[in-house]
Specification:
228 residues, 64% helix, mainly alpha, disordered N terminus
Length: 228
């Protein structure tokens, strides 16, 4: 008798609630990620570079999160490539050795310390700006798809602020790395320049997204299961 009071769940509803299939990802992008993650992780192992073994593990977690977000909102190919190139530039930054003559101060002789001239930014600062430009573009797509938000100033500001928040979280990860192992992370001045670089990148991304036209083939997946 009790069972008669329980409304059966329609089979179609159950099927719709299952995990959404992963939207297409460029094959070249997938191969590129596998290649650079494998090579840089092997390089970090050979160098005894615990800092970038930590970052390699962190990046794998981030890749998983991005795949799940892509499953829900379908990033554009532009954004997928921006994020991928950022990951590549980050991983080679700590595993590719350079000549000590291009290393200012007492930094490690790796690409992240590279500075061509004293009056130019370091590789590290350039990658911070580019990376959080990319993160802001991704945030813009996430908010636009999740909230069906209209393109405009408000959406760009929200995305830029989200990018800055991710930049601050990145500094927390760097701090954690310094507590776990010896790193090439600088001190307070370095953190300040990182945040300035992040702000430049997120601001540029916000301005770019004001009039951005996305490819119709990469239209985000609707949140309503009936529309999938």
């Amino acid at each position: 008798m009790r069972a008669s009071f329980i409304a059966p769940v329609p089979k179609t509803h159950y099927n719709q609630s299952m995990k959404t299939p992963l939207p297409p990802v460029p094959k070249g992008l997938t191969l590129f990620v596998l290649a650079f993650m494998s090579l840089t992780t092997i390089a970090a192992l050979n160098q005894g570079n615990n800092e970038f073994l930590f970052y390699s593990g962190s990046l794998l977690v981030i890749i998983y999160i991005l795949v799940e977000i892509h499953r829900r909102i379908r990033f554009t190919n532009t954004t997928l490539w921006l994020l991928t190139i950022w990951g590549f530039l980050h991983m080679i930054g700590g595993t590719v050795p350079i000549s000590p003559e291009f290393v200012p101060g007492d930094g490690s002789a790796v690409l992240y310390s590279f500075r061509l001239r004293p009056d130019l930014p370091r590789y590290d600062q350039i990658i911070h700006a580019f990376g959080f430009f990319s993160a802001t573009v991704a945030c813009w797509e996430i908010v636009r798809a999740s909230l069906n938000a209209k393109q405009g100033l408000a959406l760009s500001i929200i995305a830029a602020l989200m990018g800055m928040g991710l930049g601050a979280f990145n500094e927390v990860l760097e701090f954690i790395a310094t507590r776990l192992t010896e790193t090439n992370v600088g001190g307070y001045v370095n953190t300040g320049w990182d945040l300035v670089s992040n702000t430049i990148g997120t601001t540029c991304a916000g301005i770019w997204c004001l009039n951005r036209q996305t490819n119709p083939r990469n239209t985000p997946v609707p949140n309503d299961p009936k529309q999938r």
